[in-house]
Amino acid sequence: MKRKNTLRDLLSAGPEAEAAAQPTTARVPSGAVRAMGLSLGHLREEAQALRASIEAGDTVVELDPALVEGSFVNDRLAADSEGELRALVQSIAESGQQVPVLVRPHPDKTGHYQIAYGHRRLIAVRRLGVRLKAVVRALSDAELVVAQGKENIERRNLTFIERALFAAHLEAHGFDRPTLHAALAVQSAEMTRYLQVARSIPRAVILAIGPAPRTGRPRWLELQRLFAQPQAEDMAAQVVAGPGFRALSSDARFQRVFESLRHGGAAPEAGRFWRNPRGEPVVRIEQSAQGMRLTINERLEPEFGTYVAEQLEALYQGFRSSREGRKAR
């Protein structure tokens, strides 16, 4: 069944049709099939919620996207993947906007709206120059940010530090803890960690590092503890302003700040790491009285260690030729 037909049927069918749409046999899906199933499952949930909304009296309308503004609370440190956005634009161009967004009347601008969820769909219709399908609902600030948080949870791609900043933004806007818990769907212990990290690490440093998609909660908590050191903020500011920092990947920028604070602000010893063009520390170089040791991080560059091992004979011959050439001179 085509994706657009699945959604259309869900919007129009009753419980019997939904039950008939459920698979009758259990299989272990491949990665691609599983991903498609998750996508269709997400569409099914949104369609069911939308149908319930319409049945409750909400109406789908078409709006000029120029009149729709983003949320008053930012939850992103980086823009969405251009590839993902292009795919969404193509999907809407071919099949239309299947799922409306949720907006509320703008609290300060008559005739304008503020989006609760569906930010990517708003970007896509703007690029296409078409009108935006939306459900307009009177939402309080708390209801809007809970809906916004719900969308992020369903997408499952906010990094730890983006969640932490989102929580801190909500707290700064005066929302209470129950609202924060509902918006991020976490319990008190995890919310405490989010807020501690966001409060302890200077915002300027977090923004300079970026979303750091490969850097999880444990590493951010370690960095938080390092900022308890005297002069940590000054040391981090020097690293962030240093040459080449902006050219690094977000995770490599995190690592650069982390290493600096861990070494008390001293620059890492020369040759400590060999970094790939993305700035990631792929090869650790350790010199001791017994000799030199190279440790290759294959998580960052899969199979690079195997390749280097296969090139040892050629490297050695090149080394011998180089030495003999110097002696001849």
TrEMBL record:
Q: Which GO terms describe its molecular function?
A: DNA binding
Annotated GO biological processes are: chromosome segregation
The record's region (Disordered) falls at: 1-26
Q: Which Pfam families match?
A: ParB_N, RepB
Where is this chain compositionally biased, Low complexity type? 13-26
Give the GO cellular component terms, alphabetically.
Answer: chromosome
Quote the CDD domains the UniProt record gives.
Answer: RepB_like_N
Matching SUPFAM superfamilies: KorB DNA-binding domain-like (SSF109709), ParB/Sulfiredoxin (SSF110849)
Q: What family does the database annotate?
A: Belongs to the ParB family.
Q: What is this protein called?
A: Plasmid partitioning protein RepB
Recorded name of the encoding gene: repB
